[in-house]
Prior knowledge:
The structure holds two protein chains of two kinds. By secondary structure, chain A is mainly alpha-helical. Chain A has helices at 3-8, 33-40, 42-59, 61-64, 96-131, 133-147, 151-161, 166-193, 196-203, 208-244, 256-263, 272-299, 301-306. In chain A, helix 5 (96-131) packs parallel to helix 8 (166-193) and helix 5 (96-131) packs antiparallel against helix 10. The radius of gyration of chain B is 24 Å and the shape is globular. In chain B, helix 8 crosses helix 10 (223-260).
Amino acid sequence: MSVEALDRVAIPAGLAVAPALPDVLPPVKLRRGFIGFVRRHPTVAIGGALVLLLIAMALLAPYLATVDPTALAPARRTRAPSPEHWFGTDMLGRDIYSRVVYGARVSLLVGFSVALLSSLVGLAIGLVSGFLRWADGVIMRVMDGLMSIPPILLAVALMALTRGSVQNVIMSITIAEIPRVSRLVRGVVLSLREQPYVDAAVAAGTRTPAIILRHILPNTLAPMTVQATYICASAMIIEAILSFIGAGTPPTIPSWGNIMAEGRALWQVKPFIIFFPALFLSVTVLAVNLLGDGLRDALDPRMAKEY
Amino acid sequence: MLAYVIRRILATIPVMAVVALFVFSLLYIAPGDPAAVIAGDQATPADVERIRASLGLDRPFLVQFGDWVWNIVHANLGTSMFTGLPVTKMIAQRLEPTLSLMAVTLVFAILVAVPLGVVAAWRAGSLLDRAIMAFAVFGFSVPVFVVGYLLAYVFALELEWLPVQGYTPLSEGLWPWFSNLILPAIALGCVYIALIARITRATMLEVLAQDYIRTARAKGIGQSGILFIHALKNASVPIVTVIGIGIALLIGGAVVTESVFVIPGLGRLTIDAILRRDYPVIQGVVVLFSFLYVLVNLLVDLVYTVLDPRIRY
């Protein structure tokens, strides 16, 4: 009952009513709109802006690149950065700036595809595992087994089986990341199943598919989004590592890992060949990680305190 | 306690079985027929068939799998398709550099990360805390080979303080061995340090809010005594867990670090095996590393009871 309401109630004689207290704290003015959002979640804003910038760079690569990224120019090999070749040229005379711009396409494609695919498959496996008791034991033992193979090695082993192609890179990293998502989803499902509102839904006669759709799925979205950004960052690093050791994106496609692999032999004398793709890869991964940290804090304040 | 140890050891068996089945299936479905490779170009189909039978490749999948597991248990990982040497021998030759690198990195990372995490928790919210956590985000984001080349360029090429690349066996002296491992260990340790520092800070914050910390402070125990004896000991279980889980990062990162610093270890062996499509070697390395990883985490679980006597099973 509010103070105003109390005034209107007839107060029996002899009963003192505490006077209304003045507001000690000034009202918190929550800034709305874009600026307010940036103020409250600076990491989401910075990370998100950088990611958008990189997406724009990948999409507009044909317009941003100065020359064809695969054009050979043997006369202009390993030139240092200059106004003509901003990031220099590699040992085949290809323009590193143009190659780096096109390389964003591979990294972002791999990162986003792996995040999306492993989230979808992991969600399905996690739901099955969380709802079907008899399948849970078997599925989780398989996931434990897959998780005990270090992800890079697992991806390397899978890549050794297939031809190097962007699709195969995506598939290999996705398989390596699925166990983590399914464990997360299963954990969420198991804790949600104990919630009173799920019991209430069961008691009301709601069928299992409807319970999953209405009560379970919406609650897995927040942790899965956060997990997906981290998977995206880790997938971009693994793609670069696979390409760097020669088991990833085919060398004909300019990717950051490939440019670095090509510059490896010359890194002591021509460090700029490795420097620029390394810089872009690091900034991209940092942007996605910032976005993930910010989303975690924004979506789950309880977790924000833990880290 | 003993029952728990036995239960925990038994629980690793299905995990190991899944790893073995998965890795064996890789070889089983791998393109290229080993029998055809051995038989050579001049062989008739009948020759290939005979060689396949002599290798036992015409038997059912599960029989071959059982055979393969039997061999692994007897420390036989097959022979390399490229060099013709036993895989166990090839791995044994490359084991020292990799184990050295991982051991130095592990010690270095724990020595750096735990104090960083403790200080960040102690001064939570301060500029120092923010700096340490910002460093942790960078550690997660900058890939190991980028850090590696940067360190090698600055400290080896420009300043000439340390050797650029290569590896010196421990038998040739402690300093030559160690000096070659400093830069690779720092590069490899970055992600690991970020991971451990974050979890240390998080668990320390939780522990520092407990009543017994206030009691210790009331008793007049000094700040460092509280942080490192009362708080850190109680925060040790999650930290040790993450150190165990993080070994996977070290294993994956070692493959790349060895390639950047030209260290002739298991990572180089793996990369060479991939380029040559030498499946038995790839298989052997994956099995070895995975079992190592499972074993480390088994040890971590067993160490819990020593670290925290409150845990009873």
